[in-house]
């Protein structure tokens, strides 16, 4: 397994600096692991 390139980003919810395994797109929000987990749990099912 190869090592992923990590990119620094700032969480759109809490403002904490984090690293993500993709190059952040300035037009889309990026979330830290904790905020991403919270947001995933809040998704509505139709």
* Element-by-element helix/strand order: EEH
Shape: globular
Strand proportion, as a percent range, falls in 15-25%
Strand order of the largest sheet: 1-2
Radius of gyration: 12 Å
Mean pLDDT: 88
Task: Tell me the helix content.
Answer: 10-25%
- Note the total helix count: 1
Query: Kindly, what is the distance between the CA atoms of the first and last residues, rounded to a whole number of angstroms?
Result: 37 Å
How many beta-strand runs?
Answer: 2
| Poorly predicted ranges | none
Task: Give an account of the 3D structure.
There is one protein chain. It is globular, with a radius of gyration of 12 Å. A hairpin with a 6-residue loop joins strand 1 (7-10) and strand 2. The longest helix has 9 residues, at 33-41. The chain has one helix at residues 33-41; strands spanning 7-10, 17-20. 20% of the residues lie in helices and 17% in strands. With 46 residues, the chain is an alpha+beta fold. A two-stranded antiparallel sheet has the order 1-2. The chain has one domain (7-41).
